[in-house]
Amino acid sequence: MGSVIDACGVRHEYPDGTTAIKNIDVTIKQQEQIAVIGANGSGKSTLQLVLGGLVEPTVGSITFFEKTTDAETVRERLGVLLQNPDDYLFNTTVREDIEYGPAQLGYNRTTAERRVESLADTLGLIDLLDRPPFRLSGGEKQRAAIASVLAFDPDVLLLDEPFGAVDATYREQILHLLSNHTGSMLIFTPSVDLVPKIANQVILIGQDGGIAARGSVREILTNRNLLSTHGLRPPQTVQMFETVLPDADIPLTVEAAREFLLKRES
Ligand SMILES: Nc1ncnc2c1ncn2[C@@H]1O[C@H](COP(=O)(O)OP(=O)(O)OP(=O)(O)O)[C@@H](O)[C@H]1O
Question: Which residues belong to any copy of the ABC transporter domain (predicted)?
Answer without folding.
Answer: 5-233
